[in-house]
Please model this.
Amino acid sequence: MESNWLLLRCKCGQSFGARQGATASCSRCGETSQITTTAVFTDSAKLTEAVAKANLPSEIKDEINSRLGEKKRKQLTTRDRASSAMVHRILKQSTDERGILTLESLRNSLDLEGVCEPSAEQIIGMAELQGVVQRFSQEEWKWLA
Ligand SMILES: [Zn+2]
Model:
């Protein structure tokens, strides 16, 4: 039987996802006990989407919701928000020769590219959820893909 995917919220305000039954720890602060389940999904892609939305500032959430409602409308291009292809490239270039990605190197790369959204924490959270990176130490992630 396939297990469900949970949208979880930490006391620090970070939302993140985990497979049901797995030990969940906050992708921002590492908290494992004071976590509440806010939604349940059967599809990991839906969960990924929900996590991304939950961690977005509300004004961006509104913009995305209105965009989703008008899918056919030409998308606005915003200089300071990265596309997923760009995020992927930034993740790659933030990874050192050992395959280790740090929040600091990711922030530096985002700065260089002039990207404000999504934040380094949001990108790491997404990548972790998608199984692209795995937490290695407090501020380091190992590249798996
Ligand atoms: Zn937390």
